[in-house]
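pasting for ref
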Amino acid sequence: MSYDNSGGLWGNRKRQNEKHPKWTGSATIDGVEYWVSAWPRDDDAPETRPAIKLAFKPKEERLTPPSPPADDFDQVPF
């Protein structure tokens, strides 16, 4: 876990092509943890594109499956 409103990026060793991020890491923003992906700029348009593009995806805790609904048949007034 990083300090609030900070994070870090590392080289993506699993990168297979240009569509995969060159750097990956994590960040904590306002107490929420995110996965971070980053790609370098396209060299053919340096004046119209950012030097580095970033994407943030919230880290989500594993969701527990919903519990089955309770049997309400005992409460039916027949």
